Amino acid sequence: MNQKLIITIGRQYGSGGRIIGKKIADELGISFYNKEIIEMAAKKTGMSEEAFEKVDETAASSLLYSIATGAYMFGNYVSPQVDLPLNDKLFIIQSEIIKSIANKESCVIVGRCADYILKDRKDVINIFIHADKETRKARVTDEYNISVNNVEGYLNKIDKKRSTYYNYYTGEKWGNSANYHLCLDSGALGIDGCVHIIESYIKEIGNSNKS
Amino acid sequence: MNQKLIITIGRQYGSGGRIIGKKIADELGISFYNKEIIEMAAKKTGMSEEAFEKVDETAASSLLYSIATGAYMFGNYVSPQVDLPLNDKLFIIQSEIIKSIANKESCVIVGRCADYILKDRKDVINIFIHADKETRKARVTDEYNISVNNVEGYLNKIDKKRSTYYNYYTGEKWGNSANYHLCLDSGALGIDGCVHIIESYIKEIGNSNKS
Known about the structure:
Two copies of one chain form a homodimer. With 211 residues, the first copy, chain A, is α/β, with parallel strands linked by helices.
């Protein structure tokens, strides 16, 4: 690719959004970031990866306190050395890492409010993947090999965590189509179908940029 | 086309969703329904088209009363002869017309909660078109040739009317990606870009149905 291309993928749990993102990254020959960002945050701060893992994509409950004390402001770099909840520290460090990756290279970034963090860039395609409950339950059980008593309850819990995280840090609504350039139903299209439509989208954007 | 194909299009005001729908219908050689459904409702009931036009895609304020009196139930045919607000009458009659069109032929239907009304069918593709405010303001002023003092306020007002209508009659959230198979940003893609991606989507679904 000549032009830089950054793709962010938001996804309902079990929709296959991560797998779709990985396939797109492999086909385009660009980097793929998901949990890798936690490792990078741990390395950057010298803090434990396990501690960050626990609060990954989880909203803190004291952002208002942080704002009130002037320790944190949306969009501005604030040193994570101040006494913030670990969730907020991770969000701030992840934001810096995501911005730095986007400055450096074409890539696919999954989750972590990357669409919002990179909202001022013009070279970003924001995608959201969702699917019906039955498709997602089957994927979680068969492919992710997760065994829980109440699969639907588990899906709802993870989705709730993701939406709370997104809504909390962005002030927007997770999964609201207006926040994304392209939203796809992987239950109707399948994983490869989604990959094909995203490829068509990239081609279309490339053509319109040339004209 | 061998298989029947019904496409519903929800759209933010000024996003070009209607124009995109018309282009798709023309290219596929299938029928297109937008305001035509009001004419059909007027003919069916012998009531005035102008009266229906006034309450088109506008929620009534007394649905709870209607439910309480047993005059209206979601998903079931209820005679519009009973004393319902005109909005509810129009919704019920439009629902019957939309179901009857979908039984008869391939088509594109714009707005009017068609995605929800046809939710039990498998041959429907539900699409939502949105765009940034600047793109929509420009389209409303330049192409729709609408002259108002406060274009942004006008956009917000029509969007509010459409979302209230949709949320009221469906119990779902207008523009929430989970309600649609495909959501596109016409500000980023352009009108023809959206048409091309929808064509790719139809082709992809056709291929996966064959395999």
